[in-house]
Specification:
Number of helices: 5
Number of strands: 4
Radius of gyration: 13 Å
Helix content: 55-70%
CATH topology: 60s Ribosomal Protein L30, Chain: A
CATH architecture: 2-Layer Sandwich
Strand content: 5-15%
Shape: globular
Structural class: alpha+beta
Largest sheet: 4 strands, mixed
Distance between the termini: 22 Å
Order of helices and strands: HEHEHEHEH
CATH superfamily: Ribosomal protein L30/S12
């Protein structure tokens, strides 16, 4: 199983546990409530949606920690991992899932940098 597949599997698990929030409006609401711990935007997100999410993140972050932002994957696969239609943005609200995904995404980014 590839590293990307492992990330999608963990995202799916977070979704089934009710700790993954997807879709621009739902993610924006999660940010406004201060619940989002990390944000994942797919590589095929539209500029308008990205601007909307980044604006909400700047205005509505938790005081103790701003959520980390990652670019990962494609909307079709993200939606499939969650059992939903294509999704371009995801917020993880649980610390355990957020920490696990952040580490996996950091490791994947390091591997990609080493290959260049």
């Amino acid at each position: 199983m590839s590293d990307e597949d492992k990330i999608y599997n963990l995202i799916g698990l977070a979704g089934r546990a009710g700790k993954a929030i997807s879709g621009a409006d739902a993610v924006k609401a999660s940010l406004m409530r201060g619940k989002a711990r990390i944000l994942i935007c797919t590589r095929d997100i539209s500029r308008g949606t990205l601007d909307k999410i980044l604006g909400a993140a700047r205005k509505c972050t938790r005081k103790e920690a701003e959520p980390a932002l990652y670019s990962f994957g494609e909307s079709e696969r993200l939606g499939m991992a969650l059992g939903r239609p294509p999704r371009t943005v995801l917020a993880i609200e649980d610390k355990g899932f957020a920490d696990g995904l952040a580490q996996m995404l950091e490791d994947l980014n390091e591997e990609d940098a080493d290959e260049r």
